[in-house]
Design goal:
This protein has about 450 residues and is α+β, with helices and mostly antiparallel strands. It folds into two domains: about 1-185 and about 370-450, Zn peptidases (Aminopeptidase, 3-Layer(aba) Sandwich); about 185-365, Alpha-Beta Plaits. Helices cover about 30% and strands about 25% of the residues. It has an eight-stranded antiparallel sheet, covered by helices on one side. Helix 2 packs antiparallel against helix 4 (about 120-135) and helix 6 crosses helix 7. It is elongated and about 75 Å long.
Length: about 450
């Protein structure tokens, strides 16, 4: 069946591109919640769109706009595929086109969510369409679960699990190929407080916690005018200064990447904090800036200066990013994203951070590492699918990222990323059209082997 599925992926590619373009058009960034939109209007709208678009093709169910499911039939599902339709914000990023309008050029589809995770979701929907249209026997039902809160804590899946359990076999296209079976633990913590009469009037950096901030800006008292006439140079970060409304405005522009791979980015926020720390600043916020700059110096991503550096053979080294700042009107808030190896616990990391900080930290999210059973029949089957579809050796990987199956018992990530840079969470995020076709091909074969053989 492999060659048949390969041809079908090519035949269905145009419809998948059209579907992805429609999904990209929804600005499904977490917004103000309401009774009918638990994560904001954009997230609810894309969930409703999927339900209405496919209710004549599959058995669909909308879980109060938290998530939507597509199934082959009404039988209990034995295979679950977990993807998400929400995306991270685009504020502070320099896109070459409208991030919420699919821009198809040079063999790529540009748009927010194209690779994370709307493109993979479109590939899975298309794979289910191929299986259905071919009339292949469904021996085990498949349920595609499309959520809308993966980027902000996965409260969508908490709600889903109150209604129904996950199928016994579960994978997500929210990672990379071949298979991700080990995911580092994750801690998102913050440093917050109050300030008055500070040299720093306001400070802003980043737009989400789980991305290296591409842009940061500080507004300083005019007394800093002479002190900022000559500013330090940072590799990979542009620094701009202007006098505006009797204040000094300093802007840093770097390169945003996913927080799980911070070594590939250029952190505009930490560069700005290092710059500010070199100035004769005074006040509570200024003191916090100097402390955090010493804990998270520009260019460092292993947590050494924060006292949390560690690694192990199975999952690699810890990564830590000072990723968000919002300081204005007398209140400051800094947020960090830390991914730690399987040999450590969240409590160990938090205790070390608090010791270095000299005070408690605000914990937003903490989750322990995820380790799935690599000897399960599903994992063995997916490795076989990967090897026979690609001709390459399959293996299980460990990553610093946290996929949609992190809190499950034995779920794994199976794709959808291939070995190329796609600007995930950054400006000009894209998915290659040929890669999308390969995704469709591989997922069709996977669903067939797990549900039809």
């Amino acid at each position: 069946m492999i060659e048949t599925f390969r041809k079908k992926a090519d035949e269905y590619l145009d419809s998948a591109v059209m579907l992805l373009s429609q999904l990209i058009s929804f600005p499904s960034v977490m917004g103000e919640p309401s009774e009918s939109a638990p994560f904001g209007k954009g997230c609810a709208d894309v969930v409703k769109f999927v339900q209405e678009s496919f209710e004549d093709e599959f058995v669909t169910k909308n879980f109060d706009n938290y998530c939507v499911t597509l199934s082959f039939n009404n039988e209990p599902a034995e295979l679950g595929i977990l993807a998400h339709l929400d995306v991270v914000p685009v504020e502070g990023q320099k896109w070459s086109s409208d991030p919420f309008t699919a821009d198809i050029r040079d063999g790529r589809i540009y748009g927010r969510g194209s690779i994370d995770d709307k493109g993979p979701a479109a590939a899975c929907i298309t794979a289910m369409r191929i299986i259905r249209d071919m009339g292949l026997p469904i021996k085990r039902n498949c349920r595609l679960i499309l959520g809308s809160n993966e980027e902000n804590g996965s409260a969508d899946m908490e709600y889903y699990l109150k209604k129904e359990p996950f199928p016994p076999m579960l994978f997500t296209p929210d990672g990379e190929f071949p298979i991700i079976s080990v995911e580092k633990g994750k801690i998102r913590c913050g440093y917050s407080g109050k300030y008055t009469d500070d040299t720093i009037i306001s400070l802003k950096g980043g737009s989400v916690v789980n991305a290296v901030p591409e842009r940061a800006e500080a507004v300083l008292d005019i007394s800093m005018k002479e002190h900022t006439e000559k500013l330090p140079v940072f590799d990979g970060v542009e620094i701009h200064r202007e006098i505006k409304d009797n204040t000094v405005v300093i802007t840093a522009v770097g390169k945003g990447v996913h927080a799980s791979t911070p070594e590939g980015g250029k952190n505009a926020l930490t560069a700005l904090l290092e710059l500010l720390s070199s100035l004769p600043l005074k006040g509570e916020l200024s003191d916090k800036v100097k402390l955090l700059s010493s804990m998270y110096p520009y260019g460092e991503t292993d947590g050494a200066s924060a006292g949390i550096k560690c690694s192990d053979e199975r999952s690699g080294a810890l990564t830590s990013v000072l990723s968000f700042a919002d300081c204005k009107n007398g209140s400051f808030d800094f947020q960090t994203d830390t991914r730690f190896p399987v040999s450590k616990t969240s409590e160990q990391i938090i205790n070390a951070l608090e010791k270095r900080h000299g005070a408690p930290v605000d914990i937003a999210i903490k989750s322990e590492p995820h380790c799935a059973d690599e000897d399960s029949e599903m994992v063995k089957t997916l490795l076989k699918v990967y090897e026979e579809c690609t001709g390459e050796k399959g293996k299980c990987l460990a990553i610093g990222g946290s996929t949609y199956v992190h809190e499950t018992t034995n779920g794994v990530a199976f794709g959808a990323e291939w070995d190329y840079k796609n600007n995930m969470h950054g400006a000009d995020e894209f998915i290659g059209i040929e890669e999308l076709k390969k995704d469709i091909f591989v997922y069709t074969d996977a669903i067939y082997r797990l549900c039809c053989e």
